[in-house]
Amino acid sequence: MVRDHKDSDITQPSLLSRPCLVVGNFCHDVLIRDGVVVGETLGGAASFISAVLEGLSVPYSLVSKVGPDFAYMSGRSPVVIPTSRTTLFHAHFDSEADGNGHGDRVLKRVSACDPIQPSDLPQTSFAFGMAVGVGGEVSPETLEQMLEICSVVFVDIQALIRDFDGVDGTVRLLELRESGFFRLLPRIGFLKASEDEAMFMDLEEVRKWCCVVLTHGKDGCTVYWKDGELEISPFAANQVDPTGAGDSFLGGFAAGLVHGLAVPDAALVGNLFGSLTVGQIGLPMFDSRLLQRVKDEVQRRKMQCVSGNERHDDERMFSKPAGHEQFHASLGAAKLIPTCMVQECQWDLPSSPSRAVEQAILNSIHEENINCVDGAITAMHLTANEGLQEDGDLLIQFTPILGLFSLQKQ
To answer: Which PANTHER family match (predicted)?
Structure first.
């Protein structure tokens, strides 16, 4: 049975009362700049999307797999596969490169958890589904099952076109037409892609089959559908780490639609959360006051459109509703609320910890030798047991829930 945005009104109350389904594995991400580890964090598109959906009070179910080495706690528990390892990516950044978005990033998959099978999906129906694999865990058969149980399915193109070098795991992209997913495009509601990823598909062909949302980093995004296209304004951002920006965008975009916004307004919500994500290293932490302000603005915007007796058809769904620019300004004002940034580990001690202590921490989370940075290790996750370790008068306190450690002088 075909279910997509062409056959269902995505703002029906009957759909909004049902939760979303997010499908994709959680990962461990190691961030390396110029050969030096600058941080490690919970990764995977599903983790970024979950953070946004939870922040905007969108009910959802998660299907995600990890190994027993998984080092984090989250709002939704992934399935632990005893015989597998958690998917691990090393993201290498080059400070000399002057790219936009991910242009200066080399991504390598070091290990991969088991794929998500169609039988792993719940035997129930959902208003929205999100196929957001990052390590090849979503197969065409799994996506096809999602299309059967979800009224509207969002797909991140990276779940469809990523391939991995057999020697070192370097991520490379395949032509969409050459993937096993191309035949499913007419059943997909929304396909999200970055500018770099868009080079691996024929945009003019794909937009005939489904709505394409093309993200442009600091320049916002463009929505393409069969009969038109629309540019959506960005929000100013101070980029620290581009990892996960597109995932947070997709989470915000879907959340906006779940709350009943038209596509252009929902894309603004996506742009907002993408801009918030790049200002932090790894998985973002959103200030509760900001989230409440955004939810208030979204609800206010929804009521404005309802009171305007907007038509429920493709013209209404894709056209900018009256007041779109004011909604952008209101979200921009909400963004001025100070965000709760991930605390960086400051080594402002009378004497820095020994090199042996730093290396011991790093060796506990990596299989290969990677240089560590003197003076700043950010958002490193815990793989040791929770507790305290002592090295002379230096106390190292692990905080596994936040994935951080701090250093204090006794």
So the answer is: HEXOKINASE FAMILY MEMBER, INOSITOL 3-KINASE
List pLDDT tens digits, range 168-184. Answer: 999 999 999 999 999 99
The band of 95, judged by pLDDT with boundaries at 50, 70 and 90, is confident
Q: Which of 118, 176, 165, 175 is nearest to 144 (CA)?
A: 118
Which residues does the annotation mark as catalytic? 247
Nearest-10 crossing angle of helices 288-307, 324-335: 170
Residues 229 and 368 in one domain: no
Q: pLDDT tens for residues 358-396?
A: 343 334 334 333 333 333 333 333 333 333 333 333 332
Residue 253 contacts residue 45 (beta carbons within 8 Å): no
| Domain region containing 372 | 355-409
Around Cβ 364, how many Cβ atoms within 10 Å? 11
The count of structural domains within the chain is: 2
**Minimal CA–CA distance to 124: which of 155, 152, 153, 150?**
150
Q: Which two tokens stand for residue 268?
A: 């603004």
Say whether pTM exceeds 0.70. yes
| pLDDT tens digits for range 208-226 | 999 999 999 999 999 999 9
Cα torsion 177, 174, 23, 214: sign: negative
Place of tokens 């939704």: 76
Read off the amino acid at residue 60.
Y
One domain, residues 365 and 287: no
Return the C-alpha torsion angle 141, 144, 148, 152, nearest 10: 140
Q: Tell me if 79 sits within 8 A of 64, measured CB to CB.
A: yes
337-366 pLDDT per residue, tens: 764 443 333 323 333 333 343 343 334 334
Q: Check: CB of residue 158 under 8 Å from CB of residue 58.
A: no
Q: Are residues 262 and 154 in the same domain?
A: yes
Say how far apart CA 247 and CA 25 lie, in whole Å: 13
Query: Do 200 and 260 share a structural domain?
Result: yes
CATH of the domain at 41: 3.40.1190.20
* 173 domain-assigned: yes
Distances (CA, A) of 371 to 38, 89, 221, 361, 380: 9, 16, 37, 12, 14
Angle of helix 288-307 relative to helix 263-277, nearest 10 degrees, comes to 170
Instruction: Share the mean pLDDT of the chain.
Output: 80
